[in-house]
Amino acid sequence: MKKLEAIIKPFKLDDVKQALVDIGIRGMTVSEVKGYGRQKGQSELYRGREYHIDFLPKVKIEVVVTDDKVEEAVRQILLVANTGQIGDGKIFLSDIEDAIRIRTEESGNDALN
Amino acid sequence: MKKLEAIIKPFKLDDVKQALVDIGIRGMTVSEVKGYGRQKGQSELYRGREYHIDFLPKVKIEVVVTDDKVEEAVRQILLVANTGQIGDGKIFLSDIEDAIRIRTEESGNDALN
Amino acid sequence: MKKLEAIIKPFKLDDVKQALVDIGIRGMTVSEVKGYGRQKGQSELYRGREYHIDFLPKVKIEVVVTDDKVEEAVRQILLVANTGQIGDGKIFLSDIEDAIRIRTEESGNDALN
Amino acid sequence: MSFQTKNITWFLKNLMSAAVFVITLSVFAFAGNTPDSNAEALDMVWILIAAFLVFFMQAGFAMLETGFTRSKNAVNIMMKNLVDFSFGSLAFWAVGFALMFGAGNAFIGSEGFFLNGVTEPTQYAYWLFQAVFAATAATIVSGAVAGRIKFSSYLIYSVVITALIYPVSGHWIWGGGWLSSLETPMIDFAGSTVVHSLGGWAALAGAMIVGPRIGRYTKVKGPIRGHSLTLASLGVFILWFGWYGFNAGSTTSGTDLTIAIISVTTTLAASAGVVSAMITSWLREGKPDIGMSLNGALAGLVSITAGTANVSPLSAVLIGVIGGIIVNYSVALFDKLKIDDPVGAISVHGVCGAWGTLAVGLFAQESFGGVNGLFFGGGINQLLVQLLGVVAVFIWSFGLSTVMFLTLKRTMGIRVTEEEEILGLDLVEHGAEAYPDFTVTM
Amino acid sequence: MSFQTKNITWFLKNLMSAAVFVITLSVFAFAGNTPDSNAEALDMVWILIAAFLVFFMQAGFAMLETGFTRSKNAVNIMMKNLVDFSFGSLAFWAVGFALMFGAGNAFIGSEGFFLNGVTEPTQYAYWLFQAVFAATAATIVSGAVAGRIKFSSYLIYSVVITALIYPVSGHWIWGGGWLSSLETPMIDFAGSTVVHSLGGWAALAGAMIVGPRIGRYTKVKGPIRGHSLTLASLGVFILWFGWYGFNAGSTTSGTDLTIAIISVTTTLAASAGVVSAMITSWLREGKPDIGMSLNGALAGLVSITAGTANVSPLSAVLIGVIGGIIVNYSVALFDKLKIDDPVGAISVHGVCGAWGTLAVGLFAQESFGGVNGLFFGGGINQLLVQLLGVVAVFIWSFGLSTVMFLTLKRTMGIRVTEEEEILGLDLVEHGAEAYPDFTVTM
Amino acid sequence: MSFQTKNITWFLKNLMSAAVFVITLSVFAFAGNTPDSNAEALDMVWILIAAFLVFFMQAGFAMLETGFTRSKNAVNIMMKNLVDFSFGSLAFWAVGFALMFGAGNAFIGSEGFFLNGVTEPTQYAYWLFQAVFAATAATIVSGAVAGRIKFSSYLIYSVVITALIYPVSGHWIWGGGWLSSLETPMIDFAGSTVVHSLGGWAALAGAMIVGPRIGRYTKVKGPIRGHSLTLASLGVFILWFGWYGFNAGSTTSGTDLTIAIISVTTTLAASAGVVSAMITSWLREGKPDIGMSLNGALAGLVSITAGTANVSPLSAVLIGVIGGIIVNYSVALFDKLKIDDPVGAISVHGVCGAWGTLAVGLFAQESFGGVNGLFFGGGINQLLVQLLGVVAVFIWSFGLSTVMFLTLKRTMGIRVTEEEEILGLDLVEHGAEAYPDFTVTM
Ligand SMILES: Nc1ncnc2c1ncn2[C@@H]1O[C@H](COP(=O)(O)OP(=O)(O)O)[C@@H](O)[C@H]1O
Ligand SMILES: Nc1ncnc2c1ncn2[C@@H]1O[C@H](COP(=O)(O)OP(=O)(O)O)[C@@H](O)[C@H]1O
Ligand SMILES: Nc1ncnc2c1ncn2[C@@H]1O[C@H](COP(=O)(O)OP(=O)(O)O)[C@@H](O)[C@H]1O
Q1: Mean of per-residue pLDDT scores for chain F
Q2: Alpha-carbon F225 to chain mean position
Q3: C-alpha distances in angstroms, C87 versus D7, F424, F425?
Q4: CA of A72 to the centre of ligand 2 (A)
Q5: Quick check: pTM over 0.90?
Q6: Contact E281 B51 (CB under 8 A)
Q7: CA–centroid distance, residue A103 to ligand 3 (Å)
Q8: Of B6, B60, B94, which is closest to A94 when you measure between CB atoms?
């Protein structure tokens, strides 16, 4: 079981969600984050002064998938979230030891279906 | 040392927190997230049109515990956060290599007490 | 490749970011969280009643670094985020199996540079 | 005469002959501007502007209530405020006004339904002024039952209060009924009792019958905090602003120069309410509490409303100071009694309304409103009459509201289910979220 | 006479001699307060206060529009509202007023640019009242094109509408032009057509030419929701409050006692609009929808604006009820036509404005405004004239706005790029964020 | 005459005899409505409504200031605005009014404490009008010291400014003191100097002595941004609305027809301020900046306040344009000087207030206010007197405020600790959070 954490541009959320659902993933958890990276933040104005914002709004999608789905899921995200511009984000992969569904107390892969 | 990530219904936060505290867990970190899953989102209205909201408000509790506490913590969460209805959420377990308390620079299990 | 999750006091965010950037880290992801811990929450008033707030505002910095940078990154965070007072926060270390840059599909350490 | 007719002959064609212009503009005037017609017009202008200001108090109530409650119920609060005014003003047009001001007996009026028979402009103006008052009484209840009452039940209730509960006791005091026909008539100049206490006691009945919000008194955790003290504060500023219409407009005459002293006593009592409520909270809790300070402003305003034309500035300050203290202890008391009133409406409107009404019996001064209270050598009579009025309206409003809310409870139900309450009224009652910007960030 | 001169002789030096005081204060008065001078002064006070209230509607529009749109465009909405009033009032001063009210022909006026030649105080007051109306017409467009129009293009457009589009058709109806010179002159008391439909049809042209927001009709996902229904509701309360100035102020006379009945019909129609819009949405969707209820209030207000001085309270209720129903179906219709109007401006102002204008031909009653409509035995003439006015203004406003927006589109461009729209107008047009508190939490 | 007495005989009983009704309603009137009594009443109605509008500016200031500052200080801003008005109006009642308008010498008044000896209604009205002005002066300081001043110190300061600092220089200019007794008296019609500059210079002293917020000038990171530009914009709309009361109310007379031209110059100057401030920011920074545009509106308003009754519409536009440019450079200047003024109060009120006062000496025109300035052939005298007034008030206000703030600093302390500032004033001073909805989501 692996966790994919995808940091993406906010307006890609719907597309990425749909792409994941289309390959049979049935759950995910999303949060608003701020990202710092190569994509340099906007320059903004505030009461007549220009300044630089380092942190840009991003969306983090966390999705735990069974091992056999990892590759496909990554491929889908790469496909859909890519705009070709700096700041498209990253996918981080890590190991999840177990998952438990609170309602049924199922665990392991069963908890994900 | 393990990390438990519990995605729960927001109104269960206080109960889960208390349950964890009661078994001697002394710290946790909480964030607001949106969840997609089997629990189908509400249908809402907006200026005369009905539509469907896929993402529902959830709360994510992250708690890093020593290995010996994992089982008990999971049990407590299952006990308290369960309403028997779809959408109660998940617990994900993963490995944490080390924890460091910033103030004292203690690391390992000491950082958690 | 490791992930550092640092839970810090919000007003330290800028300093920590700068410290990480100064040692050559080129990306990180930040989110607002609420923390429960030893630092006892403020006592607040609401319409004439005193009460206690358990959860305090914290900032979570997630940064994925190549193995050789872990130690330095931790040291920097400890250096900068420490105020010597309860509630300074924690750093959690965990393993990341892979990172992929969405734009270029680079993976591994390359995705982090 | 319609707008455009006037405009035709207006402006530039007459640029060279300003005199002609004035004549044209004042067609009616020349048909006979007299001191009396001018006085009548000025009175009407005053009533109308005051009515507009009182209308605007609806915005104040909406902001105050939503600020003091959770974001998951914000839409519901807005709907309740919008709808109690709308249904309320229609109900007051159809029924309420006739019961309150129509010829009738000492208990109730009975003529003028649907403004039938009304032809005088001044009567229309007066209707509007009274309608916005009636809607205020209805709105007071909204805050006290926020977060758990069923929208449909609230809607029915708000029609009943504006069509029946408010007008009847209003008739007693303002419509020529028994409380105004006593040898020493009750004095409630702008409605500490007629409007505020009435609303406050209805709110009390509502809060008791609908019961406290889930988690309010059952858990160790703190109070259920509101979602925007900024908007709550804005609400108080708007209410204070509108209150000038409420109090000074109650002369229903702009040629009655007491409007000046009324405006002054209103200002001073409100200020004094803020100061004393804040200091009281500071002494009790160690910090100047914003919730109490905001409530202090309203407490001062409600307290001065009955006697605003009858007391000196100094007395107004004292009345406000006491109002500000009362509200602190009253809120604490209802909390101890586990009567859950998210915005403090019972204390602010009910209790301070009663205090303000009694205060007239103490502080009234002949040189202001023609009557002396206890402290100014007028004896205890006025005070007793005021007390009688307070009690009578309490019995009427609390009694009828209790009947009404209980009936609703037993028939269509008065409270949303536990699950609905947890999800929030916005979602379950209106299918809406107040601040849904997350998934739409695009 | 300047302020301080009066003050010198003012107050305490004369404390002992109040009589002297009054004399001092009323230097001018004693030079000759007459019933006519008083009536003139009262008229002016009324116009000015009404103008202030109409000005305040800008705040209402700003809140309504920002509430119904996303937070990433909130600053842009504020800027548009601030700037259309500012540029608009300057444009109306320089050009618009002369075209609308200056002596000229049946189609257009042509004297009084820059208030040239104006010396009478009443004319200044009248200018202000008209300027805030003109700015209202401009602001209506803002909501319909929100979230994608280029700021610079909007700015140019708002100058054109206040300097040219609004004044010319305004001249026809209010400035002595052809629609007011017909045998049966068109009746549009406070501007259902002159202001609201005009703005609504311009909004229609704008929304069509600028095109829908990205994702609005192309995806399965739901509507693009606004970021604060609380602020949107506040906006409606403010607009309703300001509308009293809009309608009752349109007598441009405080001695004209019809201001009372106007205020009453305005209140009842707005209330009726809320009630019927809410019930309609309840029946159609199963829940009382807040967006529709808020739009219902505005629909009622827009609908009564033309006939506010010409219809009975009961007719006002009916007009409002129908307005509230219309707005439901109209919003749905434009959605089906994929004309993206984030705040419903086209339906509320355009369609309900037309309905309100026609309603005068149906519901007008001699005992109120001197004219009978179809339902009261006046025959069909007035209705036909109203229809003529509706159509004429539609052609003018929609036509000219189309030309204007198309010209802008082909020259400087009318819409931000896709990338900019996604990032939000606040960032790309103003370098700002409306709620930037995250990284600054410190 | 109390309300209910009137009501008894009111309405439906007399439905058949409207004539009787009018008589009943106008008991006083028939005792003698005269042109003079009507004029007096109209003057009072005007003063009061204007005072209500100026009161409402408190809401505007509260929204503006909270919008431009961080959410962790939002409650504190609300409290400061609520409390400076409340303490301020009590202080002005007790002391300030007597010092300002009481008989005395050229420097200070000394009669009428606690409204002692005041009996005339008009004097009460005048007190209220002056009290809301005094509170405005106090509130101006609030924004400049936001985010770090101790609440208790602010509270004391706000009493001192309304009880002493404002009234004394006010006496010089409006109360019969030396600046109004010069051969060529200073002209400050509605208070560019008396109110705004005074407040602005006090704000300057405050901001300098309390020092910049942590991180404001010490780090590379950008400015400390506010938490809601939406609320800040709402604040500006409210202020603009209230300003009509501020300026046009300053005739303290509704029969003085200059209220029309005042309202026009106020509107045009504000609009011009927006336009020029926006364009200046656009040229300087490449984008139309909302902060500057909002400040531009206020800059235009402050700038026209002194000369609003003395200049032509065209001059008003020029005065506003220059105000809008000044505010851009002034904000930048104080930033360079590291004087931290989160809302720009010093520039808007202090600097533009001075500009507006001087502008009278340049643009005054006999045909408007009876006096000619330099540009209209009046010579340099008026300008020099204006300059004298500007300098005198600067010395008085800045001097006394400096003394006051330094005294507070050395005694009870004027600034919260670093840790408290980082946590936010809401938590440490009031034990509150403005938006605490997270843990309560339930
Ligand atoms: N090492 C990292 N650890 C955690 N998050 C990162 C890291 N590097 C980048 N990110 C996240 O990915 C986002 C995009 O990265 P950026 O360098 O701007 O563009 P790109 O991924 O296209 O090279 C950042 O805003 C940040 O949220
Ligand atoms: N595979 C997953 N990865 C990450 N989060 C998930 C996953 N599946 C579910 N979740 C989270 O758990 C929540 C509850 O899941 P859901 O399927 O709705 O109900 P249940 O857990 O009762 O089956 C979701 O809203 C989502 O936040
Ligand atoms: N076991 C834990 N798991 C996850 N987060 C924790 C844990 N313990 C502490 N935290 C986070 O660290 C923050 C600081 O911890 P706290 O115990 O208050 O102070 P300190 O780290 O100085 O001992 C908490 O607010 C919480 O967000």
Answers
A1: 91
A2: 24
A3: 72, 17, 19
A4: 19
A5: yes
A6: no
A7: 28
A8: B94
What tens digit of pLDDT does each residue of F288-310 get?
999 999 999 999 999 999 999 99
For the F33-111+129-430 domain, the top CATH level (class) is mainly alpha
- The whole-angstrom separation of Cα D150 and Cα D103 is 36
Band of residue E221 on the pLDDT scale cut at 50, 70, 90: low
3-class DSSP state of B45:
strand
Q: Copy the structure tokens of residue B63.
A: 């708690």
Residue D180 vs residues D399, F5, F9: alpha-carbon distances, Å: 21, 7, 11
Considering only CA atoms, which residue is closest to atom 20 of ligand 2?
B87
Residue D442 contacts A where some CB pair is shorter than 8 Å: yes
**If you measure from the C-alpha of residue B72 to the centroid of ligand 3, how many angstroms do you get, rounded to a whole number?**
19
Cα–Cα dist D384/D32, whole Å: 48
Cβ <8 Å between F187 and E431 = no
Token match 């505020």: residue?
D196
CA dihedral D306→D310→D316→D319, nearest 10 degrees, is -50
Ligand 2 pocket residue status of A62, Cβ below 6 Å: yes
> Could you tell me if F401 and F206 are in contact, meaning their C-beta atoms sit under 8 angstroms apart?
yes
Q: Which distant-in-sequence residues (6+ apart) come within 8 Å of C113 by Cβ? A: C26
Which residues in chain F are contacts of C14 at CB distance < 8 A? 219, 221
Of the listed ligands, the closest to the CA of C31 is 1
Task: Check E331 against B45: CB less than 8 A apart.
Answer: no
Ligand nearest to the CA of C102: 1
**With bands split at pLDDT 50, 70 and 90, how would you rate the model's confidence at E439?**
very low
Q: Which residue of D has its CA nearest to C52?
A: D222
- CB contact under 8 Å between B32 and F442, yes or no, is no
Strand ranges, E, within chain B: 2-8, 28-36, 43-46, 49-52, 56-65, 90-95, 98-101
Tokens standing for F92?
Answer: 């002005």
Q: Distances from the Cα of F167 to the Cαs of B9, F85, F100, F199, in angstroms?
A: 59, 15, 4, 12
The alpha carbon of residue D413 is apart from the nearest alpha carbon of chain F, in Å, by 23
Q: DSSP for E330-389?
A: HHHHHHHTT---TT-HIIIIIIHHHHHHHHHHHH--HHHHS---GGGT--SHHHHHHHHH
- C72 token code pair: 């330095």
Give the Å distance between the CA of D229 and the centre of ligand 2: 34
Distance from E364 to chain D by nearest Cα, in Å? 12
Q: Give residue D263's identity as a one-letter amino acid code.
A: S
What DSSP designation does A44 have?
A: E
pLDDT at D418 over 60: yes
User: Which tokens go with D165?
Assistant: 């509960």
Cα–Cα distance, D72 to F437 (Å, whole number): 9
Q: What is the pLDDT of residues E390-405, one digit of tens each?
A: 999 999 999 999 999 9
Reported as type and span, the H/E element at residue C75 is helix C70-81
Q: Is A9 in the pocket of ligand 1 (CB under 6 A)?
A: no
For A46-104, the pLDDT digits (tens) are 877 777 888 888 999 999 999 999 999 999 999 999 999 999 999 999 999 999 999 99
d(CA E126, CA E174): 13
CA-proximal residue: ligand 3, atom 27 (nearest): C35
Q: C27 to chain A: nearest residue by CA?
A: A37
Probe target for ligand 1 pocket from C28, C60, C93, with the most ligand atoms within 8 Å of CB: C28
Check residue E213 and report its DSSP letter.
Answer: P
Q: And the tokens for E144?
A: 């319909």
Using alpha carbons, select from F211, F136, F213, F209 the residue that is nearest to residue F401: F209
Tens digit of each residue's pLDDT (9 = 90 or more) over C7-50: 999 989 989 999 999 999 999 999 999 999 988 777 788 877 77
C105–A78 CB contact, under 8 Å: yes
Looking at chain E, which residue has its C-alpha nearest residue A56? E439
